[in-house]
Specification:
The complex is a heterodimer of chains A (82) and B (231). Chain A has 2 helices and 3 strands, in the order βαβαβ. By secondary structure, chain A is α+β, with helices and mostly antiparallel strands. Chain A is elongated, with a radius of gyration of 16 Å. The longest helix of chain B has 13 residues, at 218-230. The relative contact order of chain B is 0.18. Classes of the chains: A alpha+beta (82), B alpha/beta (231). At the A-B interface, α1 and α2 of A face loops of B. Chain A: GO terms for molecular function: phosphoribosylformylglycinamidine synthase activity. Chain A: Belongs to the PurS family.
Chain lengths: 82, 231
């Protein structure tokens, strides 16, 4: 089966997000007030696996081995059939 | 005695390090492309700065997962000295050879300027030619040099004296103004627990000849070469 994983990587809560802070400040200049703005990165990965569970396990491995840095990141994986 | 200069696609301080090691210090050095897997013939390694793999994903992340890094780990396990400069520091933290992580500068801007550093320990193969507490001048050039580690890691580093250099003002005080990137506790360079691996964001190779404005950096390479000769 073909699966599509959408991986979202974000900085752990409490960690400084300089990119988000800068965007928030720019919005403020445009007259938009926000309480918080955090950035995240999203990776879309298509892969072939026997089951959704196996596909998710593979993507989880990818996150642990390369895509995320466990010292600074949290991540979530959403799976669906492609 | 030959020192390996590890090169990835996007390394760009490799020739500067080669020049300093060979022409200024008088050591033997050899550039090694990341596809090599056997580093047994080398007595030490330097991972130079640059933008390996375009700094895609995270600075240093992709380079840290290449097979040559397993050979660098083996060198480190054998007690050989390994120094990572700038992107090299990012590669060493990403590969787990050093604690912590390097994230985007607190004010997210590429900063290229001279910094004052305080030598925090002389007990390492890279800092033995300095005096403890000495203030030296070495330039930085980075966007992702904000050192982060959690509290238990930081206090363990403090206990073991693993911080090699801190950003300070011209009088040697640790201040927020002297911190160019928001690093915790103004950390500019650290050692591993065995003290034979060092990563630092400032570029010692760019301060290794007085014509460049400072030759403080050359003592790191001299320390390393002397350590290797005495091993």
């Amino acid at each position: 089966m073909q699966y599509r994983a959408e991986v979202t990587i974000e900085l752990k809560p409490g960690m400084l997000d300089p990119e988000g802070t800068t965007i928030r400040r720019a919005l403020e200049h445009l007259g938009y007030h926000t309480n918080e703005l955090r950035t995240s990165k999203r990776y879309i990965i298509d892969l072939e696996e026997e089951s959704a569970e196996m596909a998710k396990q593979k993507v989880d491995e990818m996150c642990q081995k390369l895509i995320a840095n466990p010292i600074i990141h949290n991540y979530t994986i959403e799976m669906r059939e492609a | 005695m030959t020192i390996a200069i590890i090169e990835f696609g996007g390394s760009n301080c490799n020739l500067d390090v080669l020049h300093v090691l060979e022409d200024v210090v008088g050591a033997d050095a050899e550039r090694v492309w990341y596809k090599e897997t056997d580093l047994d013939r080398f007595e030490g390694a330097v991972i130079p700065g640059g933008f390996s793999y375009g700094d895609y994903l995270r600075s240093g992340a992709i380079a840290s997962r290449t097979p040559i890094m397993n050979s660098v780990k083996k060198m480190a396990d054998e007690g050989k000295p390994v120094m990572g400069i700038c992107n090299g520091f990012q590669i060493l933290t990403e590969s787990g050879l050093l604690d912590g992580a390097l994230t985007t500068n607190e004010y997210p801007k590429f900063r290229c300027e001279w910094t004052s550093l305080r030598v925090e320990t002389t007990d390492s193969p890279f800092t033995s030619a300095f005096k403890e507490g000495e203030i030296i001048r070495i330039p930085i050039a980075h966007m992702d040099g904000n050192f982060y580690a959690d509290e238990p890691t930081l206090s363990a580093m403090e206990d073991e004296k693993l911080v090699a250099f801190r950003y300070v003002d011209s009088e040697g005080h640790v201040t927020d103004e002297a911190n160019p990137n928001g690093s915790q506790e103004n950390i500019a360079g650290i050692l591993n627990h065995k003290r034979n691996v060092m990563g630092l964001m400032p570029h010692p190779e760019r301060a290794s000849e007085s014509v460049l404005g400072s030759d403080d950096g050359v003592r790191m390479f001299k320390s390393m070469v002397e350590y290797i000769s005495n091993r």
